[in-house]
Structure formats: C-alpha cells, structure tokens
Amino acid sequence: MQHAITNIIFDVDGTLIDSKRDIAGAQHWVLAQLGVHSYTPEDLYPLIGKPLRETFATLLPPSLHHRIAEASELYKEYYPPRALDTTILFPGVRETVAELRSRGIRLATASTKLSAGSRRVLTHFGIAEHFSQIQGSDDMPFKPDPFIITKILLDQGWEYAHTIMVGDTDNDIEAGKRAGVRTCGVTYGSLSSERIRQLKPDFVLDSLPELLDII
Questions:
Q1: How many CB atoms are closer than 10 A to CB 174?
Q2: What is the pLDDT of residue 2?
Q3: Cβ proximity of 97 and 130 under 8 Å
Q4: pLDDT digits (tens, 9 = 90+) for 108-125
C-alpha cells in the first residue's frame, strides 16, 4: 500500500535552481589557478552536487592531488560572491512550491551547499518562506549518506512513509533510498534523462510542475 505523500525534501542545485554556470565557472577558475586547462565549464556540469573534495579529486591529475584541499578552499573563497551572477530558478519552481504549500504539503531542502548558502539563494528568489527546514551539509556526511535526510525527518517529526526525496543526481536518489523514503529524479539537472532512469527512482520528472500530478 502506497502512503500519501505529505512531505517533500528537495535538493537545491540542479533541482530548484539552475546554478550550473556559476558553479562550473568557479570550478573552472580554480582549475586554471592550479594550471589545469583541459576542461571547459560545460565539462564540469555532471559533477555539480558532488562534495568539493570528490570533485577536485576527479578533475585534478594525480600529480596535483596534494592540492585538493587548496582547490576546495579557493572555490569557497571565489564562488559565494558570484553565486547569483547567472543563477535562476528552473521554470515553474516558484509556482510549484507555492501550490504544494497551498495543498498543505510540507517542504524542506537537503543540499550539499552549507545551510547559509542555500538559505541565501532561496531568499534571493523569494521562496525560502515555503520551507520548514533549509538544511545544508554543515558538519555532516554528504549524500549519498542518508544522514541529512534522516536529520530533517527527525527534526520535523515527519514519517518516512509519507516523504519523498526529489533531486537531480545519483547521490540524491541513493540517499533517499538509503533513508527509506520514496525518490523522484528530475531530468533537467546535472544528469541525462537516461542516467536518471537507470537509477530507478520511484518517479521521474521532466519539469518540476509535473510533481503536482503525483502528489
């Protein structure tokens, strides 16, 4: 028996906001500072949503792995002042979250960003008020570890059976599955539609407003 969905946990980057140009641009700048010029910003899109150390471990050649921590710190300094340069909400996000709240659905976010960064961008776009909890990966394991989802459920007193995790990466879907909630993959973020479907989430969306049809 499928229980009604009354709680939704969203990833942020690639799910609610289209931030790929700002994030990839910052990563590309960091790589250039370290003498790595073999990528275009577009090459970096599939890595968005991964922890910084994992991202730079993938992008830097083995001879520069001793500078992964330095690369992460450079990114943390460079990106925040530029985080909203080209970032926008995905189509229909504002209307969808407002409609969900009008139906009494409770919302939260679970992001690899720090909580302050997520709150800043959601406040900038005028939708922060719709979320009961804006949770970033502050001093906790990154997705696909389910810790961040479990924390939200415990903090809010939400039931696992009535909750769904919505995201655009393998880490989002895996974290939701490991947390024991239903999962929903979106095809307009970091990964291709084919890759999202290979992850076998419970639902797949080509645009966020389609979420209204399954709630």
A1: 19
A2: 75
A3: yes
A4: 999 999 999 999 999 999
pLDDT band of 86, cuts 50, 70, 90: very high
State whether the Cα torsion 192-194-198-201 is positive or negative. positive
Instruction: Map residue 73 onto helix, strand or coil.
Output: helix
What domains appear along the chain, each with residue ranges and CATH number?
Answer: 7-19+87-213 (3.40.50.1000), 20-82 (1.10.150)
Pairing of strands 106-111, 133-136: parallel
Nearest to 107 by CA among 3, 208, 2, 1: 208
d(CA 209, CA 115): 25
Q: How confident is the model at residue 129 (pLDDT cuts 50, 70, 90)?
A: very high
- Residue 176's nearest CA partner among 26, 7, 41 is 7
Cα of 102 vs its chain's centroid, Å: 24
Q: Which residues carry out catalysis?
A: 11
Token pair of 194, please? 């084919």
